[in-house]
Amino acid sequence: MIKSILKTSIIILLCSVSFLAKAQIGFDYAQYEVGFAAGINQASSADVQTLTTTPSIHLNFTYNQSPYVNYIFDVEVGRLKGGGPNTTTQRQFENHFSAYSFRVQVQAGEIIDYSQSSIANAFKNLYLSSGLGLINNNVVVRTDDVLLLDKGLVLPGEPKKNEIFIPVRLGYEFKLFNSYNQPAVKIDLGYQYNFIMGDELDGYIAGKHNDAYSQFNIGFKFAIGGVTSYRKQIHY
């Protein structure tokens, strides 16, 4: 009887120690997030002489493999605009576009030890991201090149065209923690450059280079569940 009680006590003690060890090793975070963002855009490589800053809005869903490795699906709606009647060519365009992209995002915290340095801790949320996307062009304004019209020529181009693009993004994520020291809300500041695999973002096919557009974004992400643990402490 005493041996049985002693054996049971040892088993309970070992299980308790194992549970406490696991609780101390693991640092929790949510695997799933939803978010929204606002941005300002510019067609930084287009076939017009002047460029205009225009707005966009974003909705996104994030799967966090870790607090610092993130897979992001983003839906964007916005405008791109450039050119005008006061330029020599008088080319002018306005694109009411929608875009869909998938990006892999790696933050510095995944690869550096930030536990012993306040500077490293400050840089742990700096990230680099890239992936693949599809942009749906809808050029609602497109004027002809007057210099070419004088020669009886018109630049080719389609007002509605789907094109593949490669987003490259650099940014910083401010993490706000709940009472359990889990990242609950994130403020995301980023600069993104989108390389278009085509030349019809502005409705014109001209020049030697494909089109591109850049944007500055500010967004908010909210944890929605799938709590799991990470090997390193997240909050310092």
Keywords:
236 residues; mainly beta; 9 strands; elongated; Porin; single chain
Give a nutshell description of this structure.
This is Outer membrane protein beta-barrel domain-containing protein. Keywords: Signal. With 236 residues, the chain is mainly beta.
Q: Could you walk me through the main structural features you see in this protein, from its secondary elements to its overall organization?
A:
By secondary structure, this protein is mostly beta strands. The protein has a single domain (30-230), classed as Porin (Beta Barrel), CATH 2.40.160.20. 14% of the residues lie in helices and 56% in strands. The chain has helices at 2-25, 118-123, 146-149, and strands at 27-45, 51-52, 54-66, 69-83, 92-107, 126-142, 160-177, 183-196, 212-230. The chain has an 8-stranded antiparallel β-barrel with strand order 1-3-4-5-6-7-8-9. The longest helix is centred in the N-terminal third of the chain and has 24 residues, at 2-25. The protein is elongated. The protein starts with a helix and ends in a 6-residue tail after the last strand. Mean pLDDT is 90; it is low at 8-25.
Q: What's the CATH architecture?
A: Beta Barrel
- What is the count of helical runs? 3
Oligomer: single chain
State the helical fraction: 10-25%
Which class do the helix and strand fractions yield? Answer: mainly beta
End-to-end Cα distance, whole Å, is 49 Å
Order of helices and strands: HEEEEEHEHEEE
Q: What does the main sheet amount to? A: 8 strands, antiparallel, barrel
Number of strands: 9
Signal peptide: 1-23
Protein name: Outer membrane protein beta-barrel domain-containing protein
Organism: Mucilaginibacter angelicae
Keywords: Signal
